[in-house]
What does this fold into?
Amino acid sequence: MSTLTPLDLERPAQLGTPRRLLALLAAALLAVAWWQVIDAGAEVELTTTERAGVPVDLLVPTAAEGAPGVVVAHGFSGSRQLMRSTGLALAEAGFVVAVVDLSGHGANPTPLIRDDDGAQLTDDVLAGVDLLVGTDAVDPERIGVLGHSMGSGAVLRAGIADPGRVGAVVAVSPTDAEVTPESPGDLLLLAGALEPRYAAAGEDLLERAGGTVPAGADAPRRAFELIGGVEHVTILFSGQMHAAAAGFLAESLDLDAEEIPGGLPPIGWWVVHLLGVLTLWRTVVPLLADRGASATTTGRGMVGAVLGALAATAVLAVVNAAVDLTGVGGMLVGPVLAVWFLLSGGVWLWFGPRPPAPRWRDVAWAGVLAAVLLLAFGVLGARVWLPGVPSGSRLALAAAFVPAVLPWSLAVASTIQGPRGVRAAGWWVVLVVVLTAGLALAANVLEPLRFLLLLLPLIPVLLTVAVVAYLPLQRPWAAAGATSVLLAWLMAVLFPLV
It folds into this structure.
């Protein structure tokens, strides 16, 4: 006969001392995380404005006067929020920083033009340059630009197009541009050690730009640096990357830079916040929830997951061969991914487990769980790496994505229902591998979903967070509704409008 302990969070328990201590620990994690994220910008004045229709976060150090300025541009599916850690690091070093939302991204409502050789994005970067030139705290003769991935191409082209105003360029995870030994001005190329494709692109750009050129030479400076232990996304939060970029820009733009503070970056404190929310939820909810009935259905569920992924990919491949799905629905990636979820989830439910009809308590718990997940991801995340509430066409797309994602989310929740302990963890590992492999297959076969290959490392994390929040309830419909809202929100705010 098994013995229940006060910390057995999968079953109803009494509000004993251990559970109270866990709740207090979770509350402390939340408080510290918020304090650290807010304190990270204490010495920097942040103003949100716009120039030529481009939304801009202007970061001005409190003591800035005649300082050099830097425009910071994100990559595909990025935003001002994603680049805020980089912007704050540069501002803390002494630069005035303009972090832009490129066309089709974040709060920029202008659709992204895909066939103009990057001219639109270059203009967006130059709009940021215009803003800095007209800012009192900035020396207009000392302007640099920094861009990541897609944004790296935009800042490279801006430096080539306007060398009179752009004196230094930093390209992080670089793409391509028509560089020469003379143009753009000073150039630093940065790539993560775990992103070999972009490291190779950086080495190629360096060679075409004339090879390594030290400071003090007659030609513009040229340098390439590999950032250890990071890939395409995590490079944005790397202290080594921030220090390399700030040091290069300081030397090129004649700034006696301040040392960038060390310690855990804002994204790290966001992770602490996420853990705090989940810990508090898992501590309290067993005292309140009347869990739904559990049934072991993992075997059938795994078969349904495989068949669903194969069927959805095959159907969309046939359709895409006849009609180009890129940009359907006015957005890249998101609408096609939503249809993939709909098809995959429908087949999965047909061959796998199907829960009974939902009851009003399932709906109520879905709302509560959705609020918890959005709190865990979005509230502090909007200050660190994620856009906030979708608006305009993004809001309409989010509403359409929820029912499209629901069958897939319901199949996930139904499949993992039942097992406990080590057995549950084992089944979950298998299911995460199956789901990640299914999305990887779709991304490799379907050009409109190719960008998902860069996001695959985040899929297990996202799903695990949702499942950790769901397990105390054992209500598939509640989990499905909440997960659908979370995924729909992420898809609506991340992918670019066209």
Remarks:
- The mean pLDDT is 92.
- The first strand starts at residue 44 and ends at 51.
- Residues 289-494 form one domain.
- Strands lie at 44-51, 54-61, 67-73, 96-100, 138-148, 168-172, 186-192, 222-227.
